[in-house]
Structures are given as C-alpha cells and as structure tokens.
Design brief:
Elements lengths: L1 H13 L2 H22 L7 H4 L2 H15 L4 H6 L2 H5 L5 H30 L7 H27 L4 H21 L7 H23 L6 H22 L7 H9 L1 H9 L6 H27 L1
Helix pairs in contact: 1-7, 2-4, 2-7, 4-8, 4-9, 7-8, 7-14, 8-9, 8-13, 8-14, 10-11, 13-14
C-alpha cells in the first residue's frame, strides 16, 4: 500500500493537478478569511469554512483531483498491473485515497495557521476554530471518497469529473430544495420511489460498459426499493410524512457540516456522520474494483 501511496502522491506533483488544487483552494479560503475574519473582525473561523464560496470550490477542484484515480487506469488498461501486484484491493483503494487526502491536508495545515495569526490581535476561540477546521477536513474527505467511487465505475475521465461535479452540486443544492418538498405521506412515498428509480438508472448508465448484467442489477435495485417503500407505506403510512425533506438534508454534506459544527463545539454525531459517509464510499469503491479485478 505504501508503494501505491507514494506513486499516487508523486503523480499529483509531477503534473499540475496537486499544485492547482492546493493553490486555488488556499486562495479562495484565504480571501474569504480576509473578508470575514480580518476585515470584519469576526473571531470564529467556522464562519469562513461554511461560506458558500468554499463549497463551490470543492465542486470544481475535487472532480479534477479524483477523475484520474481509477478511470484513467481502466481506460489505458494499466490497472491490470495493479490487479496482479501482491497487494489486496483494499490496499490499492486506500493507497490512492490517502494520497489524495494528503494533498488536501496541505491546505488544512495552512488553514490551521489562521487562528494563530488572529490571536495576536485579540481573543480567539481556539478550540471552536480548530473543531471547525477538523469538521472541514472531514467534509472534504467525504467529497474525495465520493469522487473516488465514481472514478472506479467509469473508464472515461471526463464522465467521472462531470458526474462527481453533479453529485457534489446536488448535495449542496439539496438544502435549498427542501422548501418545495411536500410534507404529505403519499407525496413523500412517491418522491422516494422516484429517487430509487433515478439511483438505479444512474448506476446502469455508469456501469453498463464495464459490468456484465448491469441492466438486470439496476432493475432489481429499482424493483426491490419500490417494493420496500410500498410495503412500509401500507404498514405505516404516517412514517413517510416529511421524510423526503429529512433525507434531503441528511444527504447534503455541506448542510450537515454547518448543522454539526455551527455550535462552535466538536460534535461527536458529526464525526460519526462523516466517517460513515467516508467508510461507505470507500467500501463501495473496494467492491467496484474487486468486481473489475475478477472480470
């Protein structure tokens, strides 16, 4: 795993990808920091990291960072060398993922200096600021895990980047779309059914070129999901009231970052939420690569 980690980390800096990511993210966060914390004399750093500009930067930069992780190797067939190497699929995935996270950690180290700079000019809530930075790191790590998974299920870098961008954008926009979601049980059940069909369709579109039986799997997923929704609705329809809004907010990673870390206290529930999201997408990536290996 260490060899893969070193190879991937070196690859980010033998090209411009790593430099562009670090420089652009540092520039945007630094500008927002100046406008909110320095110019407006606001002590808590969390307000800067929750600013919408930062989420927009993630939408742009993370697809660029993750689009080549697996998609390029699948396209050029160089992934066969990885599959024949004396390492497990889990080690391959973790090595690539940790290399991308290491690049992101450079920005985290830079951001960690900001509270120290501000402390020379007044009293700063250090614990709350570093809790917000830690939450910011977890949010970025979750986005990287999503990009990692999407790269593993497609052979085209452009498709990987576009889909990753779309998923992060949708996750960001979900928090603003809840106001138009009806609260009735029947309407919410229908919305969940449509969401299940959309998920199955996206899976089919991404996996049809690389996985045999993708259409059958997608149909089974859609049918099983809809059947489960119908059964639950018939058993206890009231449980669906407002569930679409709650689900949308839970799927909005940027919203959950603000929700768990806006109190200026390190929230254990927030840590569990982000670690669960990271673990889920890393696990899905391992399964995707494992299937590719056996195929």
């Amino acid at each position: 795993m260490l060899a893969i980690y070193k190879k991937e980390l070196k690859g980010y800096f033998t090209t411009m990808t790593g430099y562009v990511f670090v420089a652009f993210l540092a520039l945007v966060v630094g500008y927002v920091f100046y406008m909110i914390n320095v110019r407006s004399s606001y002590a808590w750093l969390g307000e800067t990291l929750q600013y919408s500009y930062v989420s927009i930067v993630f939408m742009i930069l993370i697809p660029v960072m993750t689009m080549k992780i697996f998609a390029d190797e699948r396209h050029t067939k160089t992934d066969q060398m990885l599959f024949t190497a004396p390492v497990s699929v889990s080690q391959i995935v973790l090595g690539k993922y940790m290399a991308a996270i290491t690049v992101f950690l450079i920005n985290i180290v830079i951001i960690c200096m900001y509270p120290l700079f501000m402390s020379d000019y007044g009293e700063i809530p250090m614990a709350a600021s570093y809790a917000a930075i830690f939450g910011f790191f977890l949010m970025g790590a979750a986005y990287f895990a999503i990009g990692l998974f999407i790269s593993s299920i497609t052979e085209n870098q452009i498709i990987s980047a576009v889909v990753t961008f779309a998923v992060i954008l949708l996750s960001f926009m979900l928090q603003y779309m809840t106001s138009v979601v009806p609260e009735g049980a029947k309407a919410n059940a229908v919305i969940l059914g449509i969401a299940v069909v959309c998920i199955a369709l996206v899976y089919y579109l991404l996996a049809r070129q690389s996985q045999k039986g993708a259409a059958v799997i997608a149909l089974v997923l859609a049918a099983a999901g809809i059947a489960l929704i119908v059964i639950l609705y018939l058993m206890k329809g009231s449980m669906f009231e407002g569930i679409a809004e709650k689900a949308a907010l839970r799927l909005s990673i940027s919203y959950m970052y603000g929700y768990y870390f806006e109190t200026e206290v390190l929230d254990l529930n927030g840590i569990v939420y982000f670690l669960s999201a990271i673990g889920l997408f890393v696990f899905l990536t391992v399964q995707s690569v494992q299937k590719r290996r056996w195929n």
